[in-house]
Design goal:
Elements (H helix, E strand, L loop, with lengths): L1 E3 L2 E2 L12 H8 L8 E2 L22 E4 L11 H13 L4 E6 L5 H4 L11 E6 L3 H13 L4 E6 L19 E4 L9 E2 H14 L3 E5 L3 E4 L2 E4 L2 H10 L6
The structure holds iron/sulfur cluster (SF4).
Iron/sulfur cluster (SF4) binds next to loops.
């Protein structure tokens, strides 16, 4: 597992961004998160060690652009070069999550075709409104590997109009941070039920900081949010 953040910074685009961790981390360190800048590690996928081997060895999953959004307007001038590096490293798998799937068609390279086989683009939807906007676009988009992410989950979401065998996995998580909004167990269970009906793998990734179950609200410290979700035993397939 490797990380690659070709650029840093973002702009809030929907409710799920309200307590974005990039903004939280940057404000903690006195940085301005909506000033988007190219990172020094921009060329990391093609950087080599002294012995000529790649710094990121073959076979790694590369978590890409987790301190921004790969399809951000501010990065339009840099993205083509990023795609060229992704295309060159067919021995890696690039995994990215976006809230800007509506920009995909204007952001893919000329040789994209039906998508690069070494790229997973996840679409994130935090509520019904964003699911109804993003998923019709996402479903039709030429992408080889598609996964849904409902995180931070802010309410119940009915995905029955959208789920199908084109979805490789659905991942759910609550919101982190001091001001986290509530995530309800029943919303998580319902998404799991929808996945099970269609045989889609389901992952409950993290509870978030405020989790409600059986009418009780739990404050879950950051270090236990993943383990508590695992303990619930909801993962499917
Ligand atoms: S799109 Fe992602 S990185 Fe950008 S503000 Fe929203 S949550 Fe943060």
């Amino acid at each position: 597992m490797a990380g690659w953040n070709p650029w840093h910074g973002c702009h809030r685009i929907s409710e799920g961004c309200r307590h974005c961790y990039v903004f939280r981390m940057d404000s903690r360190y006195g940085r301005i998160p909506d000033t988007v800048r190219k990172n020094r590690e921009f060329t990391l996928p093609i950087q080599k060690n002294r012995d000529g081997s790649y710094k990121i060895p073959a076979g790694e999953v590369v978590y890409t652009c987790f301190t921004s959004d790969f399809f951000l307007e501010d990065a339009d001038a840099w993205r083509e070069e990023a795609w060229r590096m992704i295309a060159r490293r067919q021995d890696l798998h690039f995994f990215m999550i976006t809230k800007r799937i509506h920009r995909l068609s204007q952001c893919v390279p000329q040789d994209w075709g039906e998508g690069y086989p070494n790229v997973t683009i996840c679409c994130t939807v935090e509520n019904q409104d964003r699911a109804d906007f993003r998923l019709p676009i996402y479903r039709e988009a030429p992408i080889c590997h598609k996964q849904l992410v409902c995180s931070p989950l802010l309410g119940p979401i009915d995905l029955s109009d959208y789920l199908g065998d084109w979805v490789e996995q659905l991942t759910v998580g609550g919101e982190s941070g001091n001001e986290a909004r509530l995530c309800r167990y029943e919303w998580v269970l319902d998404l799991r039920r929808q996945c099970m009906l269609r045989g889609i793998p389901f992952r409950f990734m993290q509870t978030g900081a405020r989790f409600e179950r059986d009418g009780r609200i739990f404050r879950v410290p950051r270090k236990f949010q993943h383990s508590q979700a695992k303990k619930a035993g909801l993962d499917y397939l």
